[in-house]
């Protein structure tokens, strides 16, 4: 095991994966408007429910977590000091 | 003559032999692998309806009760033990191999004993054995943090066991029976037993033992830990409290709150601990719904969780074994030197995220469908949110920060072959169940009338997952994703690790002050009395003087004169 300086340059295939993800999201979003899905919950009638839950849900999760971090984060030796 | 022996017995006998094989490591390896294999062959011979009773203090107790639920968990624990044992075969003397192997085998046997126990006393014995045997998998890491975390873990689980015993005693008093079956939340007994199960299942506020102890275990020990304790609790809840509505709300809280902590947690094994509570939340919720579909979903998700969570813990254990690090802030870029481990970790991540053709896809959806069938329409969105949250912390964060993200500069190599083989078995099982769900559905306690691969389910799940991944990617690109920082996050364990200590110190100080004041006052009074006595009776005391005879005659004359005077008056 050897140590090197950290390198923040993303691998060359990262961009291709992101582009693929973007295309996939677009296809899945559009697809929903052209098919009849089974609906069990009133919210499911809304075509963008799952994309919305995915994107907005995770966005809220991350933003709330940032606030939570302000409240609960302490130094790593917080408990060791006691 | 029974066709099979109690499943735990094979493990306990196996564990007894392990210490004698310390000088022959190859034979020990073969013996260790043989234990779960022999156990599984024995378990296959256990027929539904088989029981093994014994008498104790006038009570009829059941050492083995085999029905579809206990047999399912029996198969699961044999598979989990086999994978974890293969994963830990490389352990050497310096890793305290004998202690780790012996305690791990006893631990697996105790889990089997608990799920086949037909009465509360037998359950209690194995419940406590689970705690006592597993704590060595934490202590053998030998760091000060591991030692103290192990002690806290042991205390919490012993309290859970004592609560279970108290519940069992009340139950026996109320009903005259010790049989462990569906009991519900009626009366003190029900609540005590529920609480005992809840502690082991990591209910909210009783969850922090898991977050505290699991990341402090040895790399191999944590793989065992994640397989058994909480799953025994899930089994016990499914057996005793299926259909209790309160479990739906507890499960929803368990599924939702840990995902916030998982986002900001730096230690990747602790992140998996939060993820574990999140997944148990789905199981608890399913048990609370209580329909055949929901209970099938809960126990099948428990089965799958052992596989995918085990796989994720194994991959992080492999990283820890090779680099000595598990903090996201210290890792990154390991895919270059650990490509197989990275690939297997990604399979675990896809599985836990419930991607189609991976195992969680065929189990978690049963719980979600059961919620809708029973019209828990306002709980369902929370569980959907929790499902999306899994993608963030377990689906992306774990593999991304360990193997990709920024290049930490660490150059290592793949872990020992046995670790890769164990991870390979776990990954294959995740895929096999995902592709052929009937492999699992055929073992479930109730007949399965559910088809996971519908057009709607595949489309909606892909939408949820892809947009969730998109949100994480966007937050990374916009550089507002929470940075990985070496830190500790306060959780419920703060109550007993910091607040409790302070309250104890304050209370102790106040009691000591009152005690000191009281003792001081008593001692002062006694001293004062002694000084008075010393003044009068001491060597120079007035009552201790040696009076001359003349003086005495004088005083006698005075007293006589006074007496005569009184006579004349």
Largest interface: A-B, 54 and 64 residues
Give the distance, in angstroms, between the N- and C-terminal Cα atoms of chain A: 35 Å
Portion of residues in beta strands of chain B equals under 5%
Characterize the biggest β-sheet of chain B: 2 strands, antiparallel
Mean pLDDT of chain A: 82
Strand proportion of chain A, as a percent range, falls in: under 5%
Low-confidence residue ranges of chain B: none
Outline the fold blueprint:
The complex is a heterodimer of chains A (82) and B (569).
Chain A: H1 13-33, H2 49-72, E1 73-74
Chain B: H1 7-17, H2 25-44, E1 51-56, E2 59-65, H3 68-87, H4 97-116, H5 120-134, H6 136-139, H7 144-175, H8 187-200, H9 208-213, H10 221-240, H11 246-264, H12 268-289, H13 292-323, H14 339-352, H15 360-373, H16 380-403, H17 417-435, H18 438-441, H19 455-477, E3 488-489, H20 494-537, H21 549-568
Antiparallel strand pairs in B: 1-2
Helix pairs in contact in B: 1-2, 1-4, 2-3, 3-4, 3-10, 3-13, 3-17, 4-5, 4-10, 5-7, 7-8, 8-10, 10-12, 10-13, 11-12, 11-16, 12-13, 12-15, 12-16, 13-14, 13-15, 13-17, 14-16, 14-17, 16-19
Task: For this entry, give a set of tags.
heterodimer, A: 82 residues, mainly alpha, disordered N terminus, B: 569 residues, two-stranded antiparallel ribbon, 3 strands, 70% helix
Quick structural gist:
By secondary structure, chain A is mainly α. Chain A has helices spanning 13-33, 49-72; one strand at 73-74. Chain A is flat and about 60 Å long.
């Amino acid at each position: 095991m050897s140590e090197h300086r950290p390198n923040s340059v993303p691998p060359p295939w990262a961009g291709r994966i992101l582009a693929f993800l973007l295309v996939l999201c677009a296809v899945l979003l559009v697809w929903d408007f052209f098919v009849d899905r089974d609906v069990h919950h009133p919210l499911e009638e809304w075509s963008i429910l799952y994309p919305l839950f995915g994107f907005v849900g995770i966005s809220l999760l991350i933003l709330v977590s940032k606030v939570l971090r302000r409240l609960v984060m302490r130094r790593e030796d917080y408990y060791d000091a006691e | 003559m029974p066709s099979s022996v109690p499943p735990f017995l094979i493990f306990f006998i196996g564990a007894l032999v392990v210490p004698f094989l310390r000088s022959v490591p190859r034979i020990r390896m073969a013996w260790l692998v043989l234990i779960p294999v022999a156990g599984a062959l024995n378990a296959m011979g256990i027929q539904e309806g088989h029981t093994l009773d014994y008498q104790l203090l006038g009570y009829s107790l059941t050492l083995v009760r085999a029905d579809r639920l206990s047999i399912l968990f029996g198969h699961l624990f044999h598979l989990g033990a086999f994978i974890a044992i293969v994963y830990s075969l490389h352990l050497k003397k310096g890793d305290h191999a004998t202690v780790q192997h012996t305690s791990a085998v006893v631990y697996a046997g105790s889990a089997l004993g608990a799920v086949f126990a037909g009465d509360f006393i037998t359950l209690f014995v194995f419940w406590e054995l689970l705690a006592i045997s597993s704590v060595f998998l934490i202590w053998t890491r030998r760091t000060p943090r591991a030692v103290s975390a192990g002690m806290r873990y042991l205390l919490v689980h012993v309290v859970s066991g004592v609560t279970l015993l108290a519940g069992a005693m009340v139950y026996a008093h109320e009903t005259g029976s010790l049989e462990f079956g569906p009991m519900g939340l009626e009366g003190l007994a029900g609540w005590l037993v529920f609480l005992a199960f809840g502690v082991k299942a990591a209910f909210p506020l009783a969850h922090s033992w898991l977050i505290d102890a699991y990341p402090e275990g040895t790399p191999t020990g944590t793989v065992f830990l994640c397989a058994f304790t909480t799953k025994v609790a899930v089994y016990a809840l499914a057996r005793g409290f299926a259909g209790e509505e309160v479990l739906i709300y507890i499960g929803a809280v368990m599924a939702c709150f840990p995902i916030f902590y998982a986002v900001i947690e730096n230690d990747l094994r602790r992140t998996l601990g939060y993820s574990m509570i999140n997944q148990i939340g789905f199981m608890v919720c399913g048990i609370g719904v209580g329909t055949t579909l929901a209970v099938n979903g809960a126990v099948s998700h428990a089965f799958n969780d052992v596989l995918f969570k085990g796989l994720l813990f194994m991959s992080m254990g492999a990283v820890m074994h090779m680099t000595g690090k598990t903090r996201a802030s210290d890792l990154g870029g390991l895919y270059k030197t650990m490509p197989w481990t990275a690939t297997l970790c990604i399979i675990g991540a896809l599985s836990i995220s419930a991607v189609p053709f991976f195992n969680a896809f065929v189990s978690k959806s049963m719980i979600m469908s059961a919620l809708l069938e029973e019209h828990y329409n306002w709980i369902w969105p929370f569980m959907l949110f929790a499902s999306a949250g899994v993608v963030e912390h377990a689906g992306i964060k774990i593999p991304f920060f360990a193997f990709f993200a920024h290049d930490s500069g660490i150059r290592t190599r793949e872990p020992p072959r046995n670790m890769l083989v164990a991870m390979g078995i776990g990954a294959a099982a995740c895929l096999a169940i995902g592709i052929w769900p009937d492999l699992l559905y055929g073992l479930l306690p109730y007949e399965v009338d559910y088809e996971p691969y519908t057009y709607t389910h595949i489309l909606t799940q892909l939408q949820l997952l892809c947009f969730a991944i998109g949100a994480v990617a966007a937050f990374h690109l916009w550089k507002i994703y929470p940075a990985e920082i070496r830190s500790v996050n306060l959780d419920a364990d703060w109550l007993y690790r910091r607040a409790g200590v302070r309250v104890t110190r304050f209370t102790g100080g106040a009691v000591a002050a009152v005690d000191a004041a009281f003792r001081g006052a008593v001692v002062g009074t006694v001293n004062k009395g002694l000084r008075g006595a010393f003044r009068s009776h001491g060597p120079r005391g007035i009552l201790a003087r040696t009076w001359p005879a003349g003086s005495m005659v004088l005083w006698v004359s005075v007293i006589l004169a006074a007496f005569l005077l009184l006579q004349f008056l």
